[in-house]
Specification:
With about 110 residues, this protein is mainly alpha-helical. The chain has a single domain, classed as 434 Repressor (Amino-terminal Domain) (Orthogonal Bundle). It is built from 5 helices and no strands. The protein has helices at about 20-25, 35-40, 45-55, 60-70, 75-100. Helix 1 packs across helix 3. The model is unreliable at about 1-10 (pLDDT under 50).
């Protein structure tokens, strides 16, 4: 038996965590670290950072590398958070349809 889970409409899932949530809640941007300070240090505009933290903008490779260097994280850290968010959102929206796909025989 595989470790995968069938997703149903009544499946109670945990809230999906966006990279912007992590920036706001774990890296404390906007509360303990001013957005303008992160913007100046990373080369990402304050508007972009705010849009990410508001879930209006996704993290891309450029933003990931700049944030990773600024916060001393590994390259790809924030991009992996974004990819996880994207996958989870598609599973939430299309899970039942995806479950109906029959795997092609080898």
């Amino acid at each position: 038996m595989s470790g995968s889970r069938t997703i149903t409409e009544d499946d109670e899932r945990l809230d999906n965590v966006h990279a912007g949530d992590i920036l706001r809640e774990d890296f404390l941007i906007g509360s303990e670290i001013p957005v303008d300070e992160v913007a100046a240090g990373s080369g990402i505009s304050a508007d972009e950072l705010i849009a990410i933290m508001d879930r209006r903008k996704d993290v891309d490779a450029r933003i990931d590398l700049r944030l990773a260097r600024y916060f001393g994280m590994s390259d790809g850290f924030f991009l992996r958070l974004q990819n996880h968010w994207d996958l989870e959102e598609v599973l939430r929206l299309e899970g039942a349809e995806l479950d109906r796909i029959v795997q092609r025989a080898a």
